[in-house]
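User: I'm putting together a teaching handout on how sequence relates to shape, and I'd like one worked example. Could you take HTH-type transcriptional regulator CitR from Robertmurraya siralis, show the sequence you're using, and then write out its predicted structure as C-alpha cells right after it?

Assistant: Happy to. First the sequence, then the C-alpha cells directly below it.
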Amino acid sequence: MDFQWLNTFVTAAQCGNFRRAAELLYISQPSVTVHIQQLEKNLGVQLFQRDGKKIKLTEAGRRYHHHAVELLRLYEKGLADLNSFSQGYMTKLSLAISPLIAETILPYVIKSYTNKHPDVEIAIKILDSMYIEEAVMKDEVDLGLSCVNVQNSSLINELLYKDRILFIVPHDGRDAETAPPLEEEEFFLNYYLFTDNHPSYWADLLKAVKSKYPVIKTMKVSQTHITKRFIIEGLGFSFLPESTVRRELLEGRLLEVYQHSFKLPDIYTYAIMKYKHSQQQEFLEFLSNYRI
C-alpha cells in the first residue's frame, strides 16, 4: 500500500471535495481520483459516495478513516525518528515552557545543555502556564516549566526558583548618583500601570496598589517583553520579576523604584512531570546550576 494514497484519502475526507484536496496536496484532481481508486481496490471496499462535486465517506470509509490517520501518524513518527537518528540524536526531550521563562535564561541553558549532551534532541513548546499542566498530563511533553503550581495531584511538581517582584519604571535620563530619588507617587498619578503580564500575582497586587492609590490608570498587557518595551518608551510602569529585567537594569534602559507602601510578592518557577525519569531529572539538575 502506498502511503500517498492514505494521505490523499485523509485529506479528501477532511475537505469533502476532490478539487480542494488536489489543491492542498499540490497534485492534479485526476491524480486524487486515481489514488482513491487504487486504495479502494487494495482494500476491497468503497470509501466515498459521490454526489456531483461533493463527496462523503461511506460507512466503510468512516470506519477506515481512523486507521488511516493512525497509520500516517506512525509513518511520520518513524520518519522523524530516522531523521533524528541520522543527525546523531539518540534520545529526545520535549519541554513545555512559559513565555516568561523562555525569555530569561532559557536560551543560555539550552545552548549549554546541548553542548554537553549533543546526542539529545530538544523539542520546545512555548505555552501559557495554564496550559502546561495539561500538556504534561496528555504526554505531549516530557517536562513542563511553569509559573503556576499544578492542580492535578497525580503530577510531580518541584519548586525550582523563587524570584522577587520589582517596581520598574522608564529611565529618566538623569545621573543616578546626582539625581534626586524617584517618587513612586509620581508614577501612580501620571502614568499607566501595566498589569496582567504574569499569571499568578496580579489579582492580589492590584488590590494592594488600589488600597494606597484608589484612582490609577491601568492597561492590561499580557506579555512581559511587550510590557518592558512600553516602559522603555516611557508609556508607563509595572511590577515585574527581577529575572526578566536584570539585563535592562544593568544596561540602564530601565530603573527600579524602591517603595515601602505595600509588600511586593515573590513568585515561583515549577517543574512539572508525569514521570520522574532519569532524563528529566538530569535536565533539572543541570537547570538548577543557573539562577533565573
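A couple of points you could highlight for students: The chain has three domains: 3-86, 91-161+268-287, 163-264. The CA atoms of residues 145 and 206 lie 25 Å apart.
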